[in-house]
Amino acid sequence: MLLLALASAAAMARASRGQAQASHWELIVDAPADSGCSNAATISRRVEARAGNSSASRTRIVVQVRRPPEGPGWSASVRTLDRLGQPVGSRELRTEAADCSALDAGLVLVVAAVVGIALDPPQRVEAPAEAPPPLREDVVHQAVESRQPLAAASLEPAEPWRFGVGLGARAISGLLPGAALGVAAGVTGSHGAFQFHASGMWLPSADMRVGARGESHFWVALGELDLCGIAARPLRGTLAFCAGGQGGVMSGEASGLWIQRASQHALVQAVPSARASLPLAGALSVQTAVGATIPLVFPSYSYVDPNGRSRSHHHVEPGLWAELGIGLWFGS
Predict the structure, then answer these.
(1) pTM for this one?
(2) Claim to verify: residue 131 and residue 207 sit in the same structural domain
């Protein structure tokens, strides 16, 4: 009875500090008390279901879960120790999800990979000539390093979709007479290395002299769609390169001429661009973009002078643009 009581007390002590032990390996999870993170016993059961009867020899895996210094979510440091307590490998996991259990999938993969790394157990023989040699620490270290790249591709939990809205001012050349300034509002979606941007833009009236006494007035309304690949994430923001297009209407109206009439024409342009978003505070971010416009379908405006000759006075040309605005992100 005394032995049974001592064994029960030891098991309770291990559970109280987030510790679980299988036949040849031990898992310790150190997480804040109110975090809602899965404990060592839960992770161990899922690891054993995945890795089966492991042959790892006296392996200890220590998991430390903490809030990251900046931004939402959780981070986990996974360290592997050999039977002498010496480190043989480490791995860092990170999630932006509010629920700490979002780390579980990555932790199970890492621990299962470590547990399944050790060399194959010696084959059973009826009368072994001598005991097998002890497992060398350098062999364990080599095994850990060789298996880590295989699991790296699936360690991070899938990143959820994030959506944001933005409002900005855009300066553009080549579209209206001179340089034009307009206002743009849009929606952005981001998932992994993919990003899309959909927006609408309004460029108010721009005036242009026509002949000796005439004048033309122009305005443009455009919709834009960009498909982007995220190339870098500086300062917890994003830098993306995009291929996109614009479509809309360009209106021109003349005054001071013998024949005065307004006309609206379709406008289609290709829009390659680069976009950057940097966090300001909380969900707010500053958004910038630069790009070019390549007219594909565009109007050309002309008038008839007093001598009866047709003269061109404005047409859309290739141009450059730059945008600066504020964005608000939603989602984890």
Answers:
(1) 0.50
(2) no
Residue burial 30-59, b: 16+ Cβ < 10 Å; e: rest: bbeeeeebbebbbbbebbbeebeebbbeeb
> CB within 8 A of 292, min separation 6: which ones?
271, 272, 273, 318, 319, 320, 321
> 214 CB contacts (<8 Å, ≥6 apart)?
254, 255, 256, 257, 303
Domain span at 87 = 16-152
Q: How far apart are CA 197 and CA 231, in angstroms?
A: 16
| Per-residue pLDDT tens digits for 146-196 | 444 444 444 444 568 889 999 999 999 988 887 889 999 999 999 889 999
Length of the chain: 332
- The secondary structure element, H or E, covering residue 6 is helix 2-16
Non-local CB neighbours of 21 within 8 Å, separated by 6+ positions:
14, 27
Do 186 and 289 lie in a common domain?
A: yes
Both tokens of residue 317?
A: 């040309």
Tell the burial category of 29 from Cβ atoms under 10 Å away from its Cβ (0-12, 13-18, 19+): buried
In a domain, residue 318? The reply is: yes
- Which amino acid is present at 262? A
For residues 8 and 139, give the distance between their C-alpha atoms in angstroms, rounded to a whole number.
36
Q: How far is the C-alpha of 234 from the C-alpha of 252, rounded, in Å?
A: 43
**H/E run at residue 273:** strand 262-281
Same domain as 208, residue 175: yes
Give CA–CA dist 300/297, Å, rounded: 10
pLDDT in tens, 112-150: 777 764 433 444 445 555 655 564 555 444 544 444 444
Query: Residue 198 falls within a domain, yes or no?
Result: yes
Asked if residue 63 and residue 43 are part of one domain, the reply reads yes
Q: Which residue matches tokens 């990979």?
A: 113
Beta-carbon count within 10 A of 75 CB: 16
Q: Which residues of 167-194 are buried (b: 16+ CB within 10 A; e: fewer)?
A: ebebebbbbbeeebebebebebebeeee
